[in-house]
């Protein structure tokens, strides 16, 4: 039987036969405002409940905003030894950067890789959950092939720990060729969408899991995402 990691969303876990397969890399695809970042935070918060290591590679939001928004849903990321934010956002502010896991910009994949290795080493003794929000932002600063090579490195390092690597992709900003290339990295795909003010989620592809290619409605509540 395949070992799985709970997403923190009960209905989705049921659809996934218990959660995301351990050692998998998952694309979370959706338009802005669909709840991808909330999904990522909820997934990491669920890991922290189980004393797992959580690494948030932040390209789209500053670390303090990520932590503050998480508090609004009841998830505390502050002062957690097994929670690390890798800051690939603050360079945009044009200020002098500091911080153990702060990166000078997403175009230097070597620095990204070294910082990633340091973060994973700090979480070495626990099983890991790794989130990148978003992979789309990385493609804006490097070519798609370089991005995919880097994502493969992250994927391999996460899989080696038996963990799960979840990366968000913005729907509508990639052409079909680039989206297919990103799909090449992944063992599964979860898609989110908004229609007439309602939100829906589906699982078009997932390794070691019976196919469930149907749309299920979900809401973003004060406790996070709840599917119905």
Question: Layout of SSEs?
Answer:
Blueprint lengths: L3 E2 L4 H6 L4 E2 L3 E6 L5 H14 L3 E6 L4 H10 L10 E5 L21 H14 L5 E6 L1 H5 L4 H17 L3 E7 L5 H10 L2 E8 L2 E9 L5 E10 L2 E4 L1
Parallel strand pairs: 3-7, 3-8, 4-5, 4-6, 6-7
Antiparallel strand pairs: 1-2, 8-9, 9-10, 10-11
Helix pairs in contact: 4-6, 6-7
Brief description of this entry?
It contains seven helices and eleven strands. It is α/β, with parallel strands linked by helices and 228 residues long. Helix 4 runs parallel beside helix 6 (144-160).
Description:
This protein has a single domain (22-227), classed as P-loop containing nucleotide triphosphate hydrolases (Rossmann fold, 3-Layer(aba) Sandwich). Helices cover 33% and strands 29% of the residues. It has helices at 10-15, 36-49, 63-72, 109-122, 135-139, 144-160, 176-185, and strands at residues 4-5, 20-21, 25-30, 53-58, 83-87, 128-133, 164-170, 188-195, 198-206, 212-221, 224-227. The protein has a nine-stranded mixed β-sheet, sandwiched between helices.
Share of helix among residues?
A: 25-40%
CATH superfamily: P-loop containing nucleotide triphosphate hydrolases
Distance between the termini: 26 Å
Per DSSP, the total helix count is 7
Strand proportion = 25-35%
The tally of strands reads 11
Mean pLDDT: 94
Overall CATH class = Alpha Beta
Order of helices and strands: EHEEHEHEHEHHEHEEEE
Structural class: alpha/beta
């Amino acid at each position: 039987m395949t070992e799985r990691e709970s997403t923190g969303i009960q209905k989705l876990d049921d659809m996934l036969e218990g959660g995301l397969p351990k050692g998998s890399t998952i694309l979370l695809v959706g338009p802005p405002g669909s709840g991808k970042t909330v999904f990522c935070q909820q997934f990491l918060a669920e890991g922290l409940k189980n004393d797992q290591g959580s690494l948030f590679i932040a390209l789209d939001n500053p670390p303090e905003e990520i932590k503050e928004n998480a508090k609004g849903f009841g998830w505390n990321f502050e002062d957690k030894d097994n929670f690390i934010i890798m800051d690939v956002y603050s360079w945009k502010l044009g200020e002098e950067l500091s911080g153990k896991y702060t990166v000078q910009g997403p175009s230097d994949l070597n620095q990204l890789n070294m910082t990633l290795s340091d973060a994973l080493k700090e979480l070495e003794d626990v099983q890991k959950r790794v989130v990148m929000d978003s992979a789309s932002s990385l493609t804006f600063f490097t070519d798609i092939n370089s991005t995919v090579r880097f994502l493969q490195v992250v994927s391999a390092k996460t899989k080696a720990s038996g963990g799960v690597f979840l990366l968000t992709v913005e729907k509508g900003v990639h052409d079909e060729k680039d989206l297919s290339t990103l799909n090449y990295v992944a063992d599964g795909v979860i898609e989110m969408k908004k229609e007439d003010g309602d939100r829906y989620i589906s699982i078009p592809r997932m390794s070691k899991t019976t196919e469930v290619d149907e749309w299920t409605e979900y809401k973003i509540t004060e406790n996070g995402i709840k599917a119905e």
